[in-house]
TrEMBL record:
Keyword rRNA-binding: no
UniProt keyword annotation of Hydrolase present: yes
Protein's UniProt name: Patatin
InterPro entries hit by this protein: Acyl_Trfase/lysoPLipase, NTE, PNPLA_dom
Motif DGA/G, residue numbers: 210-212
Source superkingdom: Bacteria
GO terms for biological process, alphabetical: lipid catabolic process
Active site: residue positions: S48, D210
Molecular functions (GO terms): hydrolase activity
Ranges spanned by the short sequence motif GXSXG, renumbered to the chain: 46-50
Organism lineage: Bacteria, Pseudomonadati, Pseudomonadota, Gammaproteobacteria, Vibrionales
Species: Salinivibrio kushneri
Keyword entries, A-Z: Hydrolase, Lipid degradation, Lipid metabolism
UniProt feature coiled coil, ranges: none
Amino acid sequence: MSKNKPKIALVLTGGGARAAYQVGVLSAIAHWYPRVHTSPFTIYCGTSAGAINAVSLASYASCFRLGVKKLSWLWHRLNTSRVLASQPSALVGHLLSQTGQRFQSHYQPTQPFGLLNNRPLRELLNQTISFNKLNYQLLAGHLNGLSVTASNYQTGQSVSFFQGASHIKPWERARAVGKRSQISTEHLLASSAIPFVFPASRIGHEFYGDGAIHQISPLRPAVKMDAERILILDLTTGIRRPEQIKHTAPGLAMLGGHLMNAIFADTLSADLEHLQRLNQVASALSPDQKERLGLRHIDVLHLRPSEPFEPMANRYYSHMPLALRSLLKLLGINASQDATFASYLLFEAAYLRQLIDIGYRDAHNHQSEILSLLTD
């Protein structure tokens, strides 16, 4: 890695199926680079579904376009059955198994609860992500650091598992720690285990769930891994306009969507404001003062979807397997009432392609800003 090359971090937030949007943005960026070119990013930080995208790209840091092409190929061919067991027999069998465990003797070990079985996702990750390439990218200097954030159910801490250069030290701050690890499928399953929806993943002797829970500082891993510039690909779509609001009593669909938004969206804005204040302080200090206080100016570009995802989720909700829709209906979740919850779980090709297209257009609309961050 060139000493003069700025350390640019790519931060990919969580959001289930919404993470297809990030693929669209990255596809546009890849088209602006030569066919054989190292990645403009040397630091990757991911949470939940964003962690899967981050690890996939980091394993191809030596050839950015190839990494994006492989990631795009995967998302264009993704469907619900490749993420969770959606056949009627599989759904019923999983629910019966989960119910039976509640009646076991207390000394019998129980499996973590999850409404849905994500075993197909485990198999998909094992087939498509080359974890062994991460060490090569680090040794070759194409990668400075990679982090995957998960939530420890036992301690209540946000844990960022990182694999990076030897000078990067583990950290521990208020309810957030960084642990050096060899990133694996288990870390990705843990980071993407949406509470109640997917079962927690066991790492060592502890159980972990979705990384967005307890994540009070989403930008901390990038800062701790020496990022000088940060591109954030956010998956939240902003506050709804008055004409989009339904003045009805909230049912389980609306409550579930509200909780999903709270899990994935509430902390990033506060962390951005905090970083902006630190930048203002750093700008007012002399180089000696900044070095003594450990402060540096970090340029940030925050990109988020220009269109809401809920109308599209409502439009393509019927593409979801019938058995899964029936289960959600039994629980009182219906896209016609509120499609927010569905927008996170709708791993169907037509919907995902729409999100990819939006991401691609948004990147082109912000081309000058993105290239300024990556190349100046």
